[in-house]
Amino acid sequence: MDMRILRLLLWLSLLPLGVMLPLCALGLCFRNSRRRSLRMGVILLGAFVCIPVIALILRPPQFHRDDGPILKHEGNAILQRLEAFREAEGRYPADLHEAGIDMSPTRYGPWRYHVGDNGRSFELSVGDYLDNGFTLFWQSGRGFWYLDT
Fold first, then answer.
1. What ranges do the domains of the chain cover?
2. Which pTM was predicted?
């Protein structure tokens, strides 16, 4: 299952819990004995500790400075194959598979490739700013890697 969908389902399932538990605790505190309200307080404290821990576990990987050179190295290998295709065909491929490039996904997701101007320009990128806190991309018109953090 896609990590975004899983994270969304987690938050949606925890939303009623986050609203109902404090209301239940308030109701129990005013109606019942101290022992019962103390027990509910411990349960609430446990819930407020567990919810952030679960959210941290399901969080996508964040960008580490050491990953930049590794990603650029993988990207440069893709760029060489794209340029070789352009020299042979006179245009950039419509997708990476047309150029015979079959890359395994990085820990930040797959490489994304978009071609424009009828095959005369392209953009190659990896990472998602919202999920990973960065996007690394190359535009054929610029000619250098750009890291948006």
1. 3-58, 67-148
2. 0.62
Question: What per-residue string of b and e applies to 119-128 under the rule 16 or more CB within 10 Å gives b?
Answer: eeebebbbbe
CATH architecture of the region 67-148 = 2-Layer Sandwich (3.30)
Nearest to 104 by CA among 134, 71, 66, 140: 71
Give the C-alpha separation, 37 to 34, whole Å.
5
Please give the angle made by the CA atoms of 125, 105 and 137, to the nearest 5 degrees: 10
Q: What six digits make up the tokens of 71?
A: 């990603």
- pLDDT mean by block of 10 residues, the chain; 149 residues: 62 62 57 64 70 68 82 94 95 93 88 92 91 89 89
Cβ 118 vs Cβ 126: under 8 Å: no
| pLDDT on residue 92 | 95
Q: Locate 125 and state its tokens.
A: 């990128």
Output the pLDDT for position 146.
93
